[in-house]
Amino acid sequence: MSAATYTFLGPEGTFTEAALLQVPGAADAQRVPCTNVNTALERVRQGEADAAMVPIENSVEGGVTATLDAIATGQELRIVREALVPITFVLVARPGVGLSDIKRISTHGHAWAQCRLWVDANLPGVDYMPGSSTAAAAMGLLDEDAPYEAAICGPLVAAGQSGLNVLAEDIGDVPDAVTRFILVGRPGALPERTGADKTTVVVPLPEDHPGALMEILDQFASRGVNLSRIESRPTGQYLGHYFFSIDADGHAADSRVADALAGLHRISPATRFLGSYARADMQPAVVAPHTSDAAFASAHAWVDSILKGQ
Amino acid sequence: MSAATYTFLGPEGTFTEAALLQVPGAADAQRVPCTNVNTALERVRQGEADAAMVPIENSVEGGVTATLDAIATGQELRIVREALVPITFVLVARPGVGLSDIKRISTHGHAWAQCRLWVDANLPGVDYMPGSSTAAAAMGLLDEDAPYEAAICGPLVAAGQSGLNVLAEDIGDVPDAVTRFILVGRPGALPERTGADKTTVVVPLPEDHPGALMEILDQFASRGVNLSRIESRPTGQYLGHYFFSIDADGHAADSRVADALAGLHRISPATRFLGSYARADMQPAVVAPHTSDAAFASAHAWVDSILKGQ
Amino acid sequence: MSAATYTFLGPEGTFTEAALLQVPGAADAQRVPCTNVNTALERVRQGEADAAMVPIENSVEGGVTATLDAIATGQELRIVREALVPITFVLVARPGVGLSDIKRISTHGHAWAQCRLWVDANLPGVDYMPGSSTAAAAMGLLDEDAPYEAAICGPLVAAGQSGLNVLAEDIGDVPDAVTRFILVGRPGALPERTGADKTTVVVPLPEDHPGALMEILDQFASRGVNLSRIESRPTGQYLGHYFFSIDADGHAADSRVADALAGLHRISPATRFLGSYARADMQPAVVAPHTSDAAFASAHAWVDSILKGQ
Amino acid sequence: MSAATYTFLGPEGTFTEAALLQVPGAADAQRVPCTNVNTALERVRQGEADAAMVPIENSVEGGVTATLDAIATGQELRIVREALVPITFVLVARPGVGLSDIKRISTHGHAWAQCRLWVDANLPGVDYMPGSSTAAAAMGLLDEDAPYEAAICGPLVAAGQSGLNVLAEDIGDVPDAVTRFILVGRPGALPERTGADKTTVVVPLPEDHPGALMEILDQFASRGVNLSRIESRPTGQYLGHYFFSIDADGHAADSRVADALAGLHRISPATRFLGSYARADMQPAVVAPHTSDAAFASAHAWVDSILKGQ
Q: Which chain A residues are Cβ-neighbours of B298 within 8 angstroms?
C-alpha cells in the first residue's frame, strides 16, 4: 500500500503544515504545498491527493474566506478531522544581524497585525514589507539582496532553517492565539462517533422566506444542539443572498443532530453536509435527557404505535 | 350484527343528543343518556358502549371541564369524530300559558346566562330557578305542580314534547353560537386522513423545565402546524402543575404532525395522544412546501444517504 | 379611624378565612363571609368592603374558576397580597361517636377527593354526602338530625366548635398540600416593590393573529421574566376565544416587567393588569444582568443619545 | 461657503465614483480617490473630508470586507445615504486592436470572475492578468508597453477615455448585477425619517451567553422589524468571536426600531449604531398595527398609568 498524499496551503513551514503534521502518519506521507486553498482542494476533488489541510478560522496566513467559499460550492467534499495550532511568532534574521540593525521587517499581513504591539515597543520606527506568507518572508532572508533585515514567522520555519537566527520569541500580542485547520477529503464513510464531535454544514438562506435565519437557528436550538461557529458569506450572485457556514456540536449519527439536519434540509433544500468529525479539544457534548438518542427512539416508537392504531 | 351503542351526556333532548344524531347510523342505534361525562366515558372504557358523545367546548349544559379532565387521565380513549351544533334557544310553556303569565323560568345556568338580554327586554322582573339541564327544566313543566311557568331549552326538546308550546324562538344573545362535541371511543385504527383533519393531545407541563410551554408550542410552530384550541387545566395535585389540552390542524399520518408528536413526547414523555379525526367544518389545512410530506421524505432520504457515507 | 372590612369566600372557619387571618389586622377587622366569590368581589367594587380574600389556585372548597373569571372582567380590581394556607384535614364527630359508628361522612367534594385514600383504608364502605363547604358539613353535625355521623374539615373549624370531637388528624392524601389565596382591592397605589414580587395579568388571546400565544409568552421570556402560573379560560362568547391568566415574577416597577407589560399591551390591547404584590414565599427573583433596571436605563440613554444626534 | 469634499475608493472612473456622482452636488464637489477603504474613512474621521463613498455589498472591486470591518471599529462613523449602481462591463482596447488580436486581458479579479462566461465563449484561450482595479487595468492600456491588449471595466471609465475603443458591451454574466455603496460621515443629526428607511448596526456576539444570536435576531423579529442584510465577521482576536453587521428596515426614530435598538444594547452593550438613512429603492416599510408608533405610545401610556396607581 502506498502512503497517503496530502495537499496543504503552503509554502512548507507554515502553521498549516504544522497542523498537517498532527495527523497520524502525515510525517511520512507525501505533503504537497499549494499556493492557494482552491488548488489544495481541487487536487483532492481530482483524486490526486487523499485530503487537504486548510485553515478555517483565524488564520495568520489568510485563506479562511477562500476555504469557506471553496468547500461550500463545487463538487462535494467532507471534513474528516480538525486541528488546532497554537500561534506563536518569532523574529528571525541572518547571523550577525541584531535588533539594532533592523530597518525593515517582512511577514504576512495578518501576522504583522498580530505582532504590532511588540514591534512598536521594541523596534519603533521600523518599516513593514508585505510578504506572501510568513515562511516566504523568512526564506527571503536567505537571499543576500533581500530588501529587509528580519522576518516574523512561526517556530517551525525558524527551526527548519540553519541559516537563520531567532532574535526574539513569542512576540505575538495575543498570548493564547490559536488557528483552526480542517482536513478535507472526498465523501465516504463518516468518521466514528466519539461523543465529542462536531458537524459542519453550509446552509443557503432561502431568500423568499422571511425569518428564515431564525428558523435555521431554531433547528439546532430546539434539539439542544449547540453551535460553536456561525459565519455568513455572500453567495456573490445577487445582493442580499447569503449562505451560512455552521459548526454544531455532535455527530450526524446522534439522533438530535440527524433530526436537525433533516429540519435544515426541509427549510433550505440546498443545505450541504460537510462532515462529522472528532473535536480537537475532545470536549464531550452535553446532552439533555429529552434530546438523547433514547428520547428520540422512544418518541418514534410511540408515534409508530399510534399510527398502527395501538 | 347488532347496532352500535352510544352513551351521551343526558338527559334526552339536549344539544348533546343533537350532536350524537349527526353521527351516521346514530338515529337507529342505542342511545344511552348519562347523568355526567365521567359515566358516559366510563361505559366506553368498560366496553358497555362503543363510543360516547360529550361536549368539549362552549357547552350550554356544562361538562366541558369534566370532559377535558376525564379524557386526559385514566384508561386511554380516542376521539374519532367532532360535531358542531348551532345553539338556539326557545322559550316553552304549557298550553294556555302566555308571556304575561310567566313569573319564574327554569333552565341550566349556562343557558340562562346566554338568554339574559332577551329575558331582561321581554320579561323584566321574572325570577330564575336553576335546572340541572335545559331538557330537565322543560320536562319539569309537564308536572302540574312545577314551581315555574316556563323553561328555556333547545328546539330538539321542544319538538319532542307535544305537551309544550313554544312561546318564543331564537332568544339567545349570541346569534351564531355553536357548541363543539366529540365522539370518544377506545384506541384502535385511526380514522382515515381527509386533508381537513384535527389532532388532539394532552401535554403535561414538565415542571422541572423552565420555558417548557414555549418549547411545547414550538413543536407545532416549527412544523407549521396551526393550533385551533389550547387550554390549560390544573392537575389537581400540587400548585403550579398543569396539563395543556391542544387541538392541532392535521392528522397523525401527516409527516409534520407525526414529527411534532415525536417532539412533544421527547419534551413531555407523558404526552397523551387523543386522536386524529376529520374536522366538522371540512376546512383543509394549509401546508407550506417545507412542511409537506414530500419535504419530510426528501429530508430523511438525504440524512440517510449521509449516514451511509454516500 | 374605623377598622377595615374584608369579605371572603365563606362560611366562617374555612381555609379562606384562615388565609384572611394571615393579613395583619384582619383578626380585629370586620370579616364578612360571602356565599360565592362573585359576591365577595362585588362588595369590594361597590365600596362596601376594603378587600376580599378568595382562592386562586388548588382550593379544596372550589371557587378558583369563579375567581379567575370574576377578576378578568367587570370593573377593574387589584390583587394586593397573596396567602398560602397548608391544607390539612381532620375527621370530626359529635361527642360519643367513634370511628366504628360512622356510616356516612359529609364534606365539600374537593375535600372528599383529597381524603379518599385515608377513608378507604380506615373506614371502608362508608358513604359520602356532598356538603356545600367543609365548614357547613362540620356545623351540620351540631344538628341532632344530621343524616351523617362525621365530617371532614380543616383544623380551624374543629378548633372553633366545642361541640365536636376530632377523631383523626392529618387525613389528607397529599402531605404538603397548599392552597393559594389572593386579597383583592380596588385600583390604587401599588404595594411597594420588595424584590420578591409577583405580577398578575389577564391577556385575551387576539384571535386574528396566528402565533399570538407564542408572542405573548415571548414578551416575558425575552425580558427574562419567569412565569409561575399560566391558565387559559374560555371567554364564553365564541368557540376558540380564550384569555390567559398569568402570574409573572417581578413587580411592575421593575423595568423588565414594565417592558413586558408594554409588549403585551401592543399585542393584545385589552390586556388587564391585576396587580404587583409581594410573594408569600418571599423568594427573590433572579435577574440576569441584561434585564436589570440598570441595563434598561443604560439602553434607553443610549437610544436617546442616538436620536439627539450625539 | 466652500463645496463639500468627498473621498471614495478609487481610482477615478470606478463604480464607486459612479455611486458618489448620485449624491446631489457631488458632481461639483471635490472628489478624492483613495487607494483603500480605510484611508477613505480615516480622512472623514480626521475632518479632512465630509463623507466617504465606499462599497458595502457585492462589489466588483473588492473592499466590502474592509468596509464592514472599518466602520465596525475605531472612532464612530455614520452612514447617511446608500447608493445602488448597476454593474455592467465593457471590453476596451486601443484603437486598431480587434477581438482577434487579444491574447491577454487585465481587470480586477472580481470583475474577471463575473465575465468568465462571455470570455470563454468569445475569447477562448485568452490569458488573465490581475489588475488592482477595473479602472487601473483600462488606464494601463494607454501605456504602449502594456503587457495585455484589452481590459474589462465599467462604462464610466470607457466613456472618460478618448484613447480607448469599446469592443463589446454588457459582457457580465449576471444580467441585473448591482453593487451597493454607502456614504459615510461623522456622527450628527440623523437624516430625516422618510418612511422608507434603513438602519445599520454592528452587534458583537456576547460569547458568554448561549443562544445570544437568536436573542439578537429576536430583538428585531419581536418588533416586526425586517432584516435586509446580516453578515458575520470574525473579530480577529480569538476563535469563535464574531460581530454581526445588520441592516434593518426602518429608522431609529420609528418606535419599533428604537425599542429593538434598546434591546440590542441590553444583550450586547457594545452594539454600535451606524446610522438611519433613506433606502435607495424607496420601498416603504410594512408596519403591523401592533408595532406602530401609536401602539408603542399607547402601551407606554398604559404602563405609566399603572405605575402611578391609576
A: 265-266, 269
Report how far residue A250's alpha carbon sits from residue D84's, in angstroms, rounded to the nearest whole number.
42
Does B266 contact A218 at a Cβ distance shorter than 8 Å? no
Residue in B213, B214, B222, B266 to test binding to A, most A beta-carbons within 10 Å: B266
End-to-end CA distance of chain C: 56
What is the percent of chain A with per-residue pLDDT over 70, rounded to a whole number?
Answer: 95
Global ipTM = 0.88
What percent of chain D stands above pLDDT 90?
A: 62
How far, in Å, CA of B141 to CA of D77, rounded?
Answer: 85
CA distances to A12, B241, C82, D145, D249 from C55, in Å: 78, 16, 10, 96, 48
> Considering only CB atoms, which chain D residues are within 8 Å of A231?
232, 234, 242
Sequence-distant (6+) residues with CB within 8 A of A131 are: A106, A107, A108, A137, A140, A151
Among B91, B15, B87, smallest CA distance to B53 is for B15
Q: Tell the residue number behind the cell numbers 401609536, with chain if given.
A: D294
For residue A155, cis peptide bond before it (omega within 30 degrees of 0): no
Which of D219, D253, D302 lies at the smallest CB-CB distance from C265? D302
Segment holding B296, helix H or strand E: helix B293-307
**Residues of chain C with a CB closer than 8 angstroms to some CB in chain D:** 187-190, 209, 215, 218-219, 222, 252-253, 258, 261-263, 265-267, 269, 273, 290-291, 295-296, 298-300, 302-303, 306-307, 309-310
Q: In one letter, which amino acid is A276? A: S
Inter-chain touch A57–D239, beta carbons under 8 Å:
yes
User: Best mutation site among B268, B306, B310 for testing chain A: the one with the most A CBs within 10 Å?
Assistant: B306
Lowest mean pLDDT among B127-136, B250-259, C233-242, D245-254: C233-242
CA distance A43 to B10: 80
Cβ-nearest to D265 among C190, C298, C310: C298
Cis status, amide bond into D24, omega within 30 of 0: no
Residue D221: predicted pLDDT: 87
CA distance A121 to A133: 24
Cis ω before D11 (30° cut-off from 0): yes
Distance CA C256, CA A72 (A): 42
Which contiguous run of DSSP H or E holds residue A257? helix A255-267
Do D210 and A226 lie within an 8 Å CB cutoff?
yes
Residue A89 neighbours by CB under 8 Å, 6+ apart: A111, A114, A115, A134, A152, A153, A154, A170, A171, A172
8 Å CB contact of A232 and D230: yes
Contact (CB, 8 A) for C203 and C268: yes
Mean pLDDT of the region D257-284: 95
Kindly determine whether residue B180 and residue C239, on different chains, have CB atoms separated by under 8 Å. yes
CA distance linking residue A258 with residue A251, whole number of Å:
8
> Which residues in chain D have Cβ-Cβ distances shorter than 8 Å to C265?
298-299, 302-303
Neighbours of chain B (3+ CB pairs under 8 A): A, C
Can you give the pLDDT at residue B176?
A: 78
Burial of C75 (0-12, 13-18, 19+ CB in 10 A): exposed
Q: Which pTM was predicted?
A: 0.84
CB A248 within 8 A of CB A228: yes
Residue type, D190: L
Decide if C266 and D290 are in contact by the 8 Å CB cutoff. Answer: yes
pLDDT at B177 over 90: no
Q: What is the Cα B172 distance to its own chain's centre?
A: 20
Mean confidence (pLDDT) of chain D: 90
Q: Which residues of D touch C209 (CB under 8 A)?
A: 290
Residue B276: beta bridge partners?
B199
Give the closest residue to C293 by CA, choosing from C259, C265, C237, C255.
C255
Q: Which three cell numbers stand for residue A232?
A: 455568513
